[in-house]
Input
Amino acid sequence: MTLVHNWHLGRRMEYPYFESRPKRQFAAVFNINRCIACQTCTMACKSAWTYNKGQEFMWWNNVETKPYGGYPQSWDVKTLRLIDSDNNVWYTDDKDEKLSPYGVYEGDTIFETAARKNLNQWAVGYVPEDKEWRAPNFGEDVAVSKKQDEFSTLPEHSRWFFYLQRLCNHCTYPGCLAACPRKAIYKRKEDGIVLIDQKRCRGYRKCVEQCPYKKPMYRGLTRISEKCIACYPRIEGKDPLTEGRPMETRCMAACVGQIRLQGFLDDNPKNPVTWLIRHAKVALPLYPQFGTEPNIYYIPPRWAPRSYLKQMFGPGVDEAIDKFMVPSRELLAVMSLFRMTQSIIFEYAIEQGPKVFETVIHGKKFEMFNDTVIGYGEDGKEIVRTTVEEPIHVRDPKHYNSI
Ligand code: SF4
Ligand code: SF4
Ligand code: SF4
Output
């Protein structure tokens, strides 16, 4: 084991390989508050990558209802038990914006638990049984109900559920990569995408066992494991639609609820993904305590109990929800970029517009300005321009579908 810095945990942790960060890291922000669980993302991935024989139960992208849903069933509860979920203790008095923005995690990660217990493996984990993979939308829309006669009011509803959108997190310290005895799993230096070399893999399922998010999947027909490939041909600009520009993945581009924005986490504060995660701190990692530094970030749902959300997204939940409920002028502008283009936005700029609305939300003044937001591509050229107030397009009366 070596010591590497994990900024989600705000401290160094044990990992089998040296710290080696890509120049820019594949990342995405998902706004849970807007997801309608239409599963368009799920089907977009399925129809692109997992429609073959032996992949019938393989869903690289899935959307599950929390808290009862899960694919595979109860994946998170089972992993939390393995790392002793009572150990989810954070020291939050002394934060450092760069090294420990959420505070310091004082419990053990999946790697540290395996070392502490002297297990003969790099991380704790388990291999789900076949029946746990069979129902990808198990528990759909099942709500938790505290008291049947209670009305629901914000900030927390007494009856609640929410949708959790999931795919491989292309982690900075992947459990799957650490676990593989064949060294068949690698993380690309150019964009941090984590891939399984199909020629090296022998189907030992160590990745299935030690990925805490259960995102590598075993294909019995070929006896080889497979996982989300982050649609890398699109990321490399190989899709003709964007004329060589890096393009967002299938599951992001298809999102009907416009909840997803994908790009790269880098050092540019005007990169929309970097700004939302590192500067606005409105989007948080999923189960940071697992210790893999996952790279899909979530704006938590406003209505779910904070204790549940803090277990899932760490101690940054209150700040993230406060900022989302009464958004700043910049946040509102950046959020207007969600799903406005399929090309990856590398930088944004805001042109100020007039004030169009003001009100008070939870005792705080909120002002809305109709600013214009411009997104630029990798080459610095403008690829999208939109306004905070959604533009209205009037259809030509001669349109064929008009009645
Ligand atoms: S989510 Fe799992 S499969 Fe994906 S990189 Fe992380 S540990 Fe590996
Ligand atoms: S990024 Fe591509 S491969 Fe991965 S879940 Fe989304 S659509 Fe599937
Ligand atoms: S397409 Fe978007 S809105 Fe629909 S389920 Fe997927 S993430 Fe949610």
Q: What stands out?
A: Residues 38 and 226 are 25 Å apart (CA to CA). The chain has twelve helices and 21 strands.
